[in-house]
Structures are given as structure tokens and as C-alpha cells.
Design brief:
mainly alpha; two-stranded antiparallel ribbon; 19 helices
């Protein structure tokens, strides 16, 4: 018998039952469903809505179901409508008629919304740990490379030299913002719908604050209509997850580029690469490419959730059953990708010599030559023009700025002197970037110290 079967004279069509079943997706909610049902039963008993003996039977039965599922002594019917009905059916088998009282003063609408919020809040705490693990690996490697120098780029063209540590720390701060967004979402997620019933609340004298406290919610929802029809928290999480994936994808793209023979800045570990079935020499950056490719799954989940909610009238609509498909897809994808990124970073080997060699004659020291003239009294625009002419001459002569002699420099302006020559050393260029947040080793070490305090 369906939980709602009393109104119906004919059974639902078998094809429709298969079409509408969600147990293959919402089975993941079994543990939180038991937790919220135990809290609900305890509150019903405390408030005298059900007898204490029935309340104790229900709670003991729900604990037994938890033990049975954990030890695989009982499994769900794969053809069942949903996990909530399956648990209630099993509870009836264990304790008899008292099981029929567990659903007093609640609906599947507020029950499902509560379960989903609780599941997501717990998953976010795991996800935050995965983010911290990636950040910890970035910090570990940054400490070893504060003086390792490579070309910083704009438009994928050499711009100014930076340290590898500075480059890696840029991703640390991206992931730090991601962590902050997830943490800030938790109070909004932990708003308790339970007690809203189907849409209008209930006439039973329930204590929603008691339930919220026991389950670990931070507040109760303010409006019962909104509580059962709100999936903003799913959309917000998928938006946050999409940004995590975007940041991972940017890092993956650089690792893919840097592992090519043309760059050769990094060699990715055998643990995260594969070979070719036809070309024996190949070492393909598969993990990085798969993470980059799986961004589409999370973006798709976000668009699916947004579209699902588009133009839905209040309050609950069956469309919203699809929320968990999008949520679980996004959650599981971002979690596995973070774990694989940690492994990728742990196993990579940086080629410091190749990075340094790539700076030769790349003109990434041109800004410092212009700054030298500015310090001697020229306007930056004048200095920019003069150094542009120096660069053009070097390109034609096939040499770098650092290869010029003082007489060659002074052909362009008399203010150039021996100090000007010193400022074209790439390591010196990097070390002079002493502004707060800059790439000078002292500033990068300061960044690392800040990160360690926050981590």
C-alpha cells in the first residue's frame, strides 16, 4: 500500500511507477532520513502528540534500521517509490502499528527538504577538508620555490618574471575564497523546513526549535510555503561548486601546457598519467584533462537546477524531485576532482632549469628598464617609448635586453648607466617586486605565513 493510497481505487501503472521512482537517487539520504525521523519522533513524544511508549518503539526501530543498513542486513526494494517510504515500511515490519505514527505532523515535502539540507551540510564539511588538503599541498610546494623563477604571463605571452611559489599561491587564494563561500552558505542551508508539513504548517503543538537543536540546524524556516518549495540552497551550492571546478580547470590547463615538451616546466607523475596504445613515448596528462572535462558536468548540474526551478508556482511541485540528481552529480564530481588534484600536485616534479632558461631574451625585464628611467626623472610614457625602441632593436639583432652593453643602451638615452644594466637581471627583477602581495621572495613568504595562520 502506498503512503498516499487511500484516495485511489486503481493502482498506478507499472511504467509510471518506474518513471516516477527516485530510490536509485535518494537512497543516499537513508542515514540523514533516519536521523531526522528520530528527532521528529522524540519531539512528538516530548510534546505528548504520540505516547512515550510509541515514541520509544519508533526510535528503537529506527536505530535498528540504521544498524541493519550499515551491516547490509536489510536492503531497499529497487522498485520502491523512494527511500522515505521504504524506511517507514521496514519500521512497520519491525515494530507494528506504532510505525504509522512517525509521520504525524510532517509531510514528505518538509521531510525531503530537511534530509537534503542535512545531507548537503555534512557533505560540505567533507568538501571543505578536501579543499584544505589541496591548499596544504600548494603551501608545501610554495615553501620550496620562493626563489624558483619562471615567466609570468598575460595573454599567454611573457610579461614579467615571477616565482613559482607566487604562481602557486594564486591558486591557494582562489581555493580560500571557495572555502569561504561554502562556509558562509552553511547557515542558509541549516534552516529547518521540518514542521512546515505539506505547505501550510500543522495544527499539532510541535516544537520546531527542539527538532532543529537535536538535528543540528541553526534556525527554523520562517515561512512554510517557502520552506517546502525552496531549492536555493541547491543552486547556491552548485554555483559554488562550479567556481571550484573553474579554478581547478585553470590549474589543470596550466599543468597540461607546462608538461608539454615546448614548456617542459613540470613532469606529471606516473600515478596520474597514461601512455598511448600506439606511440610508446607518450605520457598523457589524463587526470588534468579529465578534471578539465568534468567541469561541464558541474556547470550542467547548475543549469539543470536553475531550469528545474524556473517558473514553478508555490509550493511543492514534483519537478523538484530532480534536485538530488543535479546536487549529487555536482557534489560527487567536485569532490573526486579535488582528491585527484591533490594527488596530481603531490606527484609532479618541477623543472627549475627549464623555467629559468625560458626567460632568456624574453624581454620580461623591459618594465624594469623603463622604471629605471622614471627614477631618473623621465615620465613613464617617455620611458615606455624609449624602452619599446630598445626592445625593437634587440628583436632585430636577435638578442635580449640582458645582452646589451652600456654603450649600446646609451644610444637610446644618456640616462642609462651601470645601474640600468643590473636591473635587467631576471632574478633581480623578481626580487624588486616588494609591494604588498608582490612576487618578491620576502612578500611571497609573507603570503605563506598569512595562509598558514588561516589554514
Amino acid at each position: 500500500m502506498k503512503l498516499w493510497g487511500g484516495r485511489f481505487a486503481k493502482p498506478t501503472a507499472k511504467d509510471f511507477e518506474a518513471f516516477s521512482s527516485s530510490i536509485d537517487v535518494d537512497a543516499k539520504l537513508w542515514a540523514v532520513d533516519l536521523k531526522t525521523s528520530i528527532a521528529h519522533a522524540r519531539m512528538l513524544s516530548q510534546q505528548g502528540i504520540i505516547g512515550k511508549e510509541d515514541g520509544e518503539k519508533i526510535i528503537q526501530g529506527l536505530h535498528q534500521i540504521h544498524e541493519e543498513i550499515s551491516n547490509q542486513k536489510w536492503t531497499f526494494d529497487p522498485k520502491a517509490e523512494d527511500i522515505h517510504g521504504e524506511i517507514e515500511k521496514r519500521l512497520f515490519e519491525l515494530i507494528g502499528p506504532a510505525a504509522k505514527k512517525v509521520h504525524t505532523a510532517r509531510s514528505r515535502n518538509d521531510q525531503v527538504a530537511t534530509d537534503t539540507r542535512l545531507y548537503l551540510s555534512e557533505a560540505i564539511r567533507d568538501l571543505l577538508q578536501d579543499l584544505r588538503s589541496v591548499q596544504a599541498e600548494i603551501l608545501k610546494q610554495a615553501k620550496d620555490h620562493t626563489t624558483t623563477i619562471l615567466p609570468g604571463m598575460t595573454h599567454l605571452q611573457h610579461a614579467q618574471p615571477v616565482s613559482l611559489a607566487h604562481h602557486l599561491m594564486a591558486y591557494y587564494w582562489m581555493f580560500q575564497r571557495d572555502s569561504k563561500r561554502l562556509q558562509e552558505s552553511l547557515p542558509r542551508i541549516l534552516s529547518l523546513p521540518l514542521g512546515s508539513a505539506a505547505l501550510a504548517g500543522t495544527g499539532f503543538p510541535i516544537d520546531r526549535q527542539m527538532t532543529a537543536k537535536e538535528i543540528g540546524f541553526q534556525k527554523v524556516s520562517e515561512n512554510s510555503l517557502d520552506a517546502v518549495s525552496d531549492r536555493d540552497f541547491v543552486i547556491e551550492f552548485l554555483s559554488d561548486a562550479s567556481m571550484i571546478m573553474m579554478h581547478l580547470s585553470r590549474l589543470c590547463e596550466e599543468l597540461i601546457l607546462w608538461s608539454t615538451p615546448e614548456f617542459a616546466f613540470v613532469e606529471l607523475g606516473d600515478e596520474v598519467t597514461t601512455g598511448s596504445s600506439i606511440m610508446p613515448q607518450k605520457k598523457n596528462p589524463d587526470v588534468a584533462e579529465l578534471i578539465r572535462g568534468r567541469v561541464g558536468r558541474v556547470y550542467g548540474a547548475l543549469m539543470g537546477a536553475l531550469t528545474m526551478m524556473k517558473a514553478l508556482p508555490l509550493s511543492y511541485n514534483r519537478d523538484m524531485q530532480e534536485d538530488k540528481i543535479h546536487l549529487f552529480e555536482g557534489l560527487e564530481t567536485v569532490q573526486s576532482c579535488l582528491q585527484m588534484m591533490k594527488l596530481t600536485l603531490e606527484t609532479c616534479q618541477w623543472n627549475k632549469e627549464k623555467m629559468m632558461k625560458s626567460l632568456k631574451a624574453d624581454f620580461s625585464n623591459a618594465t624594469d628598464l623603463a622604471d629605471d628611467l622614471v627614477l631618473k626623472g623621465l615620465s613613464f610614457r617617455e620611458a615606455h617609448e624609449i624602452v619599446g625602441q630598445v626592445v625593437q632593436a634587440c628583436v632585430q639583432a636577435k638578442k635580449g635586453l640582458e645582452d646589451l652593453t652600456l654603450p649600446e643602451l646609451q644610444k637610446f638615452h644618456s640616462l642609462f648607466d651601470l645601474e640600468s644594466l643590473k636591473k635587467m637581471n631576471h632574478q633581480q627583477v623578481m626580487s624588486l617586486r616588494l609591494s604588498e602581495g608582490g612576487t618578491a621572495p620576502s612578500q611571497v613568504e609573507r603570503q605563506i605565513q598569512m595562509a598558514e595562520k588561516n589554514h
